[in-house]
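Table S4 entry, Glutathione S-transferase.
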Amino acid sequence: MTLILGYWDIRGLAHAIRLLLEYTDSSYEEKKYTLGDAPDYDRSQWLSDKFKLGLDFPNLPYLIDGAHKLTQSNAILRYIARKHNMCEWGWGMGAGSRWHCPGLGQSELLRVCLWGVAAGGETEEEKIRVDVLENQANDTSEALASLCYSPDFEKLKPGYLKEIPEKMKPFSEFLGKRPWFAGDKVRGRLWGPGVSFFAGLAFGAHARFAFLQLTYVDFLAYDVLDLYRIFDPKCLDEFPNLKDFLSRFEVSLLMPPLPISFVFPLLPDALLVVEGK
């Protein structure tokens, strides 16, 4: 079923939602409402639909998924994460790193992709970090939006530019050396008979690995940091870990999670076990 995302025809609060929909390869269409020019900001397009959609709390953005109709941008993000089982993890063939595996026959190459994405954190610490960052990202985004929509924008802009390092520093310290804002590394192991694996490790032995855990608030964090980067392209120069986060996130969008598949047409006698730790 095709989802319907309703919002103004701007980036705004729907950008993180769009990113997550794309990341999860969701089938969706957008209902975009035009907002009139200043100073009146005519909203008649939206108002003509507002009370006809069956929304409990009519507002923008909204998401309609069959009988499920919801508003509030963060609630929508959480819904999409749950819908796509993003608190699970898996192993997939066909993308990711290439490993030399003589037992695979013709190509002798196994493509392995390990991924992990959590809807809202797994441990209590991660859940706390998710809750805190969700609200902090919203506050920081709203502060910039208030400036940009202010009639005194040009007068206020120089002072706001000076304040940006103070706004970015807590994000940098909160992220620290983590790959993602809430999730850290989740460890596991692979084993099975029959072929060599991981540059000479016997497949019969335990081959330990670590994969990264992404949460829906990373989509919010990316959105707000990218907005500030657009507003002031040099604002993250003092915070290399935030720049690395943006780059890491952009790469992740090009390599979304794969469905789990345990099909080995070239290796009928193989056994693969994936065990999370």
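The CA atoms of residues 3 and 65 lie 5 Å apart.
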